[in-house]
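Researcher: Next entry in the queue.
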Amino acid sequence: MSRKNRSRHWGSVLWMLVWAGSKVVAGEESRDWLEQIRVPPGFHLSLFSDATPNARSLALGDDGTVYVGTLERGVVYALRDEDRDGRAERVLTLASGLQLPNGVAFRDGALYVAEVSRIIRFPDIGSRLAAPPSAEVIHDRFPTDRHHGWKYLRFGPDGKLYVPVGAPCNICKPDLPYASLTRMNPDGSGFEIYAVGIRNTVGFDWHPDTRELWFTENGRDWLGDDLPAEELNRASTQGMHFGYPYCHAGDLPDPEFGKERSCKEFVPPAWKFPAHTAPLGVRFYTGNQFPEAYRKQLFVAQHGSWNRSRPQGYRIVVVSFDKDGRAVGDEVFADGWLRPDDEVLGRPVDLLQIEDGSLLVSDDHRGVIYRISYRP
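Model: Structure for this entry, 376 residues:
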């Protein structure tokens, strides 16, 4: 099999596994599995919604509505907890028939949704949840590749919409805008590339003090069970290069492209996670409900491995920062989605801090959204 055909073959295998791994576990009336998820003393995990199949990225509206993107379901949900009891009693489908609408973001009353090749916007969505308006297309010039084509969306402190463009392969040397992080104005104008050398990021946030961008990056496959490390990167200025496809995790030259460039030319990770844990959504905690030790620390959802001989990940970790805004350590915050016998109970995807200071966690494997609260 040629190199090109191998790439296509493994790309198809990856897509099928992502597809299969995102199916909702059906027919289970018992919720005993929920009791197996462990959180630190004083914290409580409950179901915010169990009616959101394939739930992926999360965004918060200015009226408390939680917006949820999906992948193969092709829908976008709106969740309302109108009695403020910690569970969404209203789940509405705002749009359907979309192409991998993973990313969602909210700004100035409008909901932004990322499909594979375009960004669409639903204006004044909060007052029209029951009868959503037609979508406005604000940008439709992204590549059409489905491999790493699903996108994450966030508005930065600069008011711009940040949109990643993943590499269309496991390992290759594609032209821009592939393997980059882009940004644009809320109306779609002013498109530019912010950072390059990024294989695929599906989660980022800005440090509440330094305002620097922090993002997770999933490393390449087929270098063994323990290589390369997954990355947490810091982009302090525009124009930084993070190494893909020449160098992985800051110090591992790629077997195919590593001879072309030195790892010293690129920005190394600010923190590393074990290989294949698949870190996705991240969120700096800025609320008042959790203990002070968690303020301005970074929660990271590790979706879990799909091709490691023994799976790992399937958990939430907290990366700790010092007073200068540097990552200095991490520890497991919530786990139990991966049983000792390797049975998978769930796969955390994204995190969202809501108005009361609790934390929501989406799970595309089980099709639910958890709420983590603190009551000592």
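Model: Residues 88 and 129 are 14 Å apart (CA to CA).
Researcher: Noted, moving on.
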